[in-house]
Amino acid sequence: MERHFVQELDTLKTNLIKMGSLAEQAIADSIQAFLERRKDLAEEVVSHDQEINSFEILIDDQVVDLLALQQPVATDLRFILAATKINSALERIGDHAVNIAESAIQCTDLRGAKPTLDIAEMARITKEMLRQAIDGFIHNDAAIGRRVLKNDDVIDELNKKVVHNLAEAMHRSPDRIEQALEFIRVSRNLERVADLATNIAEEVIFMAEARVVKHHAAE
Amino acid sequence: MERHFVQELDTLKTNLIKMGSLAEQAIADSIQAFLERRKDLAEEVVSHDQEINSFEILIDDQVVDLLALQQPVATDLRFILAATKINSALERIGDHAVNIAESAIQCTDLRGAKPTLDIAEMARITKEMLRQAIDGFIHNDAAIGRRVLKNDDVIDELNKKVVHNLAEAMHRSPDRIEQALEFIRVSRNLERVADLATNIAEEVIFMAEARVVKHHAAE
Q1: Could you give the domains of chain B?
Q2: Is there a contact between A121 and A158 (Cβ–Cβ < 8 Å)?
Q3: The whole model's pTM is what?
Q4: 3-state SS of chain B: helix, strand, coil percent to 5?
Q5: Nearest to A170 among B67, B177, B188 (CB)
Q6: What is the value of ipTM here, to two decimals?
Q7: Cα angle at A90 between A84 and A92, to 5 degrees?
Q8: Residues of B in Cβ contact (< 8 Å) with A74
Q9: Which residues of chain B fall below pLDDT 70?
């Protein structure tokens, strides 16, 4: 029974890692589609979202089974609760990738300027935050988690700057209003992804520090 | 022990109901502040968000304790898992109320038109969805939950219409671009609140139908 339980926890972790890598890929692809105006890639992101949604349901079911049949306590319980929160954060990140991909598709149909360097910079930092949050989860490492938290304010500031600059661009070139609105939508979606990466990192810290506490207590 | 457990479940439910009523009030106030240009009310929403955040932590702690000490199964376990999801949905709704309140504050500083009737209509439906979702939770009623789901598409359509109309308004009156951007931000935040009310309703259905299944099984 005990060995079975350890295997179930491993399966749960593996599924979350797979889901995390799908979410990371969806964000990377949607951003690439947006920056390089690649409609084909954007459409791929939209059609692949179902896979991420299926993982959410699978993981939710696993959590119910684990809690009901194994009645875990302490560290294992914390891990499972963190898993449910990370699960719903990853599902939402998939949704934001779809939103960015939809804007990418809209933008290929609109004439207009290239996305600003600020959005490219936001995208770079957001992808890095998400990668680190998932890495922190895989290695159960609070220090990696803390690195994610530092960047949340940077993204908030960049988003404000992007919105402000695009509002000015609209004044200068009213014919680009529709396009600027899509750019703002992408910027706000990136900000939300950074928030969700931050939420994941917070769960990683909660999980990892509880383990540290437990280790100290056992000494 | 059994009686103690029932009391703990009741406390968890009561706390969620209190938190739900705070979130509902925050949305109602932020919308009123936006529609009636009341900076004072908007500032109240921003300063009250801490209360909702405190409930989130309190409820999370209660869930950990309940799972660790009582090791619930079946209906009770489903209720507790639904509670964690409703908890994080309500916390996010509080954040969206703050976003709407911030836009309300920005708008009182900007000259410009009154919010469109479409945003007022979105606000009305979104508040109704949230109220019904919380009602469904209180009465453990899947039928009320289902009523919420029907409105999600209505809100998505209204949001698209609002964004489209505001883009046209920007072309006609470039001096109102900043204001129109705030209106769009409010519209998108309302859309997210409607999504979250939908998530809560889905949890209510999951919870209530499991109970129905159990009752049938017991017959």
Answers
A1: 2-218 (1.20.58.220)
A2: yes
A3: 0.90
A4: 90, 0, 10
A5: B177
A6: 0.85
A7: 105
A8: 68
A9: 1, 111-112, 211-219
